[in-house]
Amino acid sequence: MTAKRIKTRFAPSPTGMMHIGNLRSALYEYLIARSGSGDFILRIEDTDRERYVEGAVDVIYRTLRTCGLDHDEGPDIGGPHGPYTQSERLPLYGRYARMLIEQGDAYPCFCPPGRVDRDEEGQETETFGYDRRCRGIAREEAAGRMQAGESYVIRQKMPLEGETSFTDDVYGTITVMNKELEDQILLKSDGYPTYNFANVVDDHLMEVSHIVRGSEYLSSTPKYVLLYQAFGWEIPHFVHLPLIVGEDGKKLSKRHGSTGFDDLVEKGYLPRAIVNMIAFLGWAPGGETQEIFSLKELEERFHIEGINKAPAVFSYDKLNWMNEQYIRALPFEDWKGMVATEALPAFGDQAFDLDMLARVLQPRVTRLSDIPDMIRFLTERLPLSAELFYNKKAKLDAGRAKEVLEAVKPRLSAVPAWTEEAILDVLETAGSELDIKKGQLMGALRAGLAAQQVTPGGAIETAIILGREESLERLERTLEFLREA
RNA sequence: GGCCCCAUGGUCAAGUGGUCAAGACGUCGCCCUCUCACGGCGAAAUCAGGAGUUCGACUCUCCUUGGGGUCACCA
Predict the structure, then answer these.
(1) Which CATH code of 3.90.960.10, 3.40.50.620, 3.90.1150.10, 3.30.413.10 fits the domain covering A7-84+244-313?
(2) What ipTM was estimated for this complex?
(3) Fewer CB atoms near the end CB (10 Å): N or C, chain A?
(4) What integer best gives the mean pLDDT of chain A?
(5) A251 is near strand B: CB distance < 7 Å
């Protein structure tokens, strides 16, 4: 193969959400193109009218855009090989199919759909696939029946002997016996091509150099190779990707939880983290140990040799970690904006200090959607209990907490400005004057303010977030509880 | 079941005949510490099995076992 310009395509079918597996294909296709300064194009494969979902094309555009996978040709931006939507290319497929019939590499088939093979006793046989019943129909008879308006499909005529092999850039050379290949349908009775036919025609016409797709297509690739040969077209590079599977080792699907890009985003995963995560499902840079890569960096390091052959299990644990890395590294202002959209509705009319809240949350949040639960103790006054104040190490319990708070609350009420520095100053003074250990002081205050044993952030941070008024009211309420206990 | 593919710790994986077999996630422990995190340090944990080839195999070959994919007028 000559040093042709690298060109890859993402060819999704508009059937709904953007599955993680599809997105990974798109990402690898994009990276293979970009790492070789080639082109990445988008083609919509809408040849299945029954599965077509309104609006699915927009999901595809939107997802690619938010992930930063810009394409060079596509239905929305055009290009030299349009149209890029298969339903608009129908006449083309018919023409090429007829060409194959004339060459003797395809034939019309009049069998009803889904016919099951049966043996002499009428039992279903164990053999699968079409039995080539119509393959022997004389050309004139076939032409007559087609003329007469009989419904038919066009099937590829597979060689009955010999073998076909091709070399995949990831899996190496693969060979199959031709007799194993089914006379697959190229053109359906409704005039639409099947994927098996359209992808070959379009990939050739659009000058795609590297066909990148999931390994579930590996076993049907010999049939495509035969098609390329029948047309006398140059065989492109094949780059089959290892499957993404769930924890149970099975191909990732709906029952494995959130497997759509939108689902993940809704759960609070950052698009950049998702992209980084799926880049490593079946690929590794080799040599180096870095795992956090921006899309730009991936464009520089990605290479086909780094693609693995074994299926990869999608790990939510690892995704969580990646998301945390991205959250921690976010510029504070960006992070604050995200916290605001989660927190504002939860706080409602209640005032709170967004800066401090964001600061406290940044090193602790795993997914954005976790925020509402994490801040519930701030947006609601939770029920109190004696156990809240128990801390063995600090020798703190409800009784001691009452003493501490009784002593400290008046001083807090008198703080001139409700700032970190001022509050810390008051508490330190109180601590040394009244001889209260820091653990007891802070522990009692934090529990008294939060009414929750474990909190993100400490006593002072909590006080700042809540503000003076709410903090003092909460302390008064706590003291009332403690006095009665 | 036929055909095809795959096989390093629980997971993602580096490795390409000679390494004490990287690193990350997760798990566990310690430190830091007003709780929880973050951060730091450390630990346990892997070459599926069997034959070969070779002076020497995780690396090469074969077989076994295990797993997966595919057998649609879906892609």
Answers:
(1) 3.40.50.620
(2) 0.96
(3) N
(4) 93
(5) yes
